Every structure is written in structure tokens, then in C-alpha cells.
Inverse folding.
């Protein structure tokens, strides 16, 4: 498809450490699958990451790590703009303009704020205001679609609301983006049955070693049903992961779950084998890319230049609309 006729895709992730299979199936896989269909812009949200990471060395390593992860899963920098949020100062400039249009009660509806408040956490202005920076992240690039997990749908909704408010006040400026959510992997279950999340400690790292995979899978809790008893395929955490990594034995596993004839240990051993088979080539690709730091840095530098060119053009229009551009 000619680039001129492709729609625009924008998404990204924070630089908060090693990705897990929930990150992969919930978002990263979509980036790779859609890179030929869309003009894709994939951002490393390093300024958002400052809400949780206060160590400069750790953040720098994480930024480089995320870029390496993207390349290891098959993102092609000739097709996808991979860039740091901090390389494009227009993000924070536009976020301030959006701040002047947005009320505190509106931002108090955001999931991250409500969650932090419910847990009695001390809430930074960055945590409270992150939806406006995220709206700027998205709207600067006029995307048609934004791939997100089901739990992140609100981010795109807030961006649309903000775009509509700006357009109403200042004239048609921002495209209204739509979210893409893959129905079969809206929420990836963790080893404890809750949503897979680093904060819950229930993850299987995307580039895990065979030993890490075995330890994680064997830790999954199960009920006390014996080998010959039927199992609950709708609520069993092991089977939920089988559906993400269906080997050639999947039909047999499913049948034995429903009729009896398979214990949880055997089920876990099959799952370990299939996860390891899936992760091994990704892990090898990452090790190779990680050994060439300059290549990864070049990808980020070039991506930053491309992203900044787009953002600068949009901000020129925004400055004119709001009245601060005099010359």
C-alpha cells in the first residue's frame, strides 16, 4: 500500500522496566502486526515514567531497553517511527495548552488518579495531570487509530474529548482518534489470575529464560481436582495461558480439561514447553540487538527527528489558533 494512502497509528509505552507477555499480547504484538498496514509512530513515554522512576540511571537504561524490545519483536525502523517523548518538546507545550481548557473535576475521573486516591497514596501533579500529557502525545500526530488494552480505553476517550473541546473553541485543528482493542486479548491473566502486572508480581517476562518461565508457570495456583476429574476451562489460570500459546496439543489439552484425564502438573509442563518455544527466538533476537547499542541509539535519534518534524508543524497551527503566534 502506498504510504500516502495509509492511515496513521500512534501508541507507546512507559519506560518502567522489562516487558511481560501481557504487554506483548495487549499492545506490542499489535504494533508489529500493523506496521505494514499503517504509518506507525511508537513512542517511549519517558516523561510519563518520571511519575514512578526517580533514578536517572535506571530511567536511561529502561529507555534504551524499551527501544531494544521493540526492535526485537520485529518493528522495522524503516516503517515505524520509534522515538522518545522527551525528544519532542512540543508534547509538554501542548499539554500546557490543554491544561487551560480542562477542569479538575474532569481529571478526577481518570483511572490512575482514582486508583491512587483509593489506595491513600500521595498524588503528584504529574499523576493527576497525566491525561493531558497523554492527550498531547496522541493528538500531535493526527492518528486515525491508537492500539490500547481494554483498561486503557479511557486514555483515548479523554484525548477525543480534549480534541473536541479545542476544536469547538478554536476551530477544526485535531483529528479525533479511535482505539483498537483486540477482542481475544483484552486483558492477559497473570499467574495469580488477576490482570498481569508488574505491580502484582504475577508476570512472565517477555524475554524470560527457560528457568524463569518454569518458575512462573509452576507458581500458578490451581484447585484440588484430580487427574480424572473435569477442569473448569473458563476460570483455570493455566488454561487461560494455554489459549495464548496453543501448541499442537491444544485440542487434546482442551478435551482432557473438559472430560478429565489430565492433571495440572502435566498441563503446566505442556504450557512451559510452548511458552519457551515462543519466547526463545525473541530472546535471541534481543540479545543480538542489545549488543549493538549505537544502532539502537541511531534508531531513536532518527525517530526523534521524524516525530519532531510532524509535531512542530502541528504546534505552529495550534499557536496560531490560540493567538500566541505574532510573527
Amino acid at each position: 500500500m502506498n504510504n500516502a494512502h495509509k492511515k496513521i497509528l500512534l501508541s507507546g509505552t512507559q519506560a518502567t522496566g522489562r516487558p511481560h507477555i501481557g504487554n506483548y499480547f495487549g499492545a506490542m504484538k499489535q504494533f508489529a502486526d500493523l506496521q505494514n498496514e499503517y504509518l506507525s509512530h511508537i513512542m517511549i513515554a519517558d516523561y510519563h515514567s518520571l511519575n514512578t522512576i526517580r533514578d536517572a540511571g535506571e530511567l536511561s537504561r529502561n529507555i534504551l531497553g524499551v527501544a531494544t524490545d521493540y526492535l526485537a519483536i520485529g518493528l522495522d525502523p524503516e516503517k515505524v517511527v520509534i522515538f522518545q517523548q522527551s525528544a519532542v518538546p512540543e508534547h509538554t507545550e501542548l499539554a500546557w495548552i490543554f491544561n487551560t481548557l480542562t477542569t479538575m473535576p474532569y481529571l478526577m475521573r481518570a483511572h490512575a488518579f482514582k486508583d491512587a486516591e483509593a489506595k491513600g497514596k500521595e498524588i503528584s501533579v504529574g499523576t493527576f495531570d497525566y491525561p493531558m500529557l497523554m492527550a498531547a502525545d496522541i493528538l500531535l500526530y493526527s492518528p486515525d487509530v491508537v492500539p490500547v488494552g481494554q483498561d486503557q480505553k479511557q486514555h483515548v476517550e479523554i484525548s477525543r474529548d480534549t480534541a473536541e473541546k479545542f476544536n469547538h473553541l478554536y476551530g477544526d485543528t485535531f483529528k479525533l482518534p479511535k482505539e483498537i482493542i483486540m477482542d481475544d486479548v483484552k486483558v492477559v491473566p497473570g499467574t495469580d489470575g488477576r490482570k498481569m502486572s508488574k505491580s502484582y508480581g504475577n508476570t512472565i517476562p517477555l524475554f524470560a529464560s527457560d528457568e524463569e518461565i518454569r518458575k512462573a508457570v509452576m507458581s500458578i495456583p490451581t484447585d484440588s481436582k484430580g487427574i480424572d476429574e473435569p477442569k473448569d476451562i473458563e476460570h483455570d489460570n493455566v488454561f487461560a495461558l494455554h489459549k495464548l500459546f496453543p501448541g499442537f496439543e491444544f485440542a487434546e489439552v482442551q478435551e482432557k480439561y473438559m472430560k478429565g484425564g489430565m492433571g495440572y502438573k502435566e498441563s503446566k509442563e505442556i504450557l512451559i514447553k510452548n511458552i519457551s518455544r515462543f519466547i526463545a527466538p525473541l530472546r535471541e533476537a534481543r540479545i543480538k540487538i542489545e549488543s549493538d547499542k549505537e544502532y539502537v541509539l541511531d534508531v531513536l535519534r532518527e525517530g526523534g527527528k521524524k516525530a519532531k518534524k510532524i509535531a512542530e508543524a502541528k504546534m505552529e497551527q495550534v499557536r496560531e489558533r490560540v493567538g500566541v503566534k505574532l510573527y
User: Anything to note?
Assistant: The longest strand covers residues 7-14. Residues 293-322 form the longest helix (30 residues).
